[in-house]
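Pipeline run #58 for the internal structure catalog. This entry was flagged by the ingest filter as a single-chain record with no existing model, so it goes straight to prediction. Upstream metadata was stripped on purpose; only the residue string is passed forward. Reviewer on rotation: M.T. Logging verbosity set to normal.
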Amino acid sequence: MTSFAHGAHLAQLNVARLLEPLDDPRTASFVELLDPVNAAADGAPGFVWRLVEEGAADATGLRPAGEDVIINLSVWESQEALWDFTYRSGHLEVIRRRREWFERHVEAHLVLWWVPAGHLPTADEALERLADLQAQGPSPRAFTFASTYTAAEAAQHLQAAAPAPAGDAAAV
């Protein structure tokens, strides 16, 4: 991973297991909200990037976590920007109605982590962070809104976890 020297952005992944396929009439109200919510995210202060399937307007066709699981992966300038979009915009309506379309979560479904500014995380990278959160709990590597870490703490954690240079006696 590249250095945080030029700043850091906050990446987020959330996953949701569909109760019904996206083309099912019972999921239509969710599908109708996708374009307006994604447009709101794209125009939100602090928004940097979101994963979209090539040739599509969103990532609902990508299924790296299973055929009935949709993902949302995005990058934000700060935790405050992501929080404001998530809980102080039209996105809150989707959160309030999620039980209509998605199974109840039994384990962590949202993960946050710091990335160097300019880095666009992959779905695999994001799923690794979620797995880390689920297995190890919150850390500077993978956390939630309720258990947050700063970019400086994440950089310190990465530095401490980096392997010692070759030839270093402490690495043996």
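catalog note: Residues 64 and 123 are 7 Å apart (CA to CA).
catalog note: Helices lie at 28-43, 79-87, 91-97, 123-136, 151-161.
status: ready for reviewer M.T.
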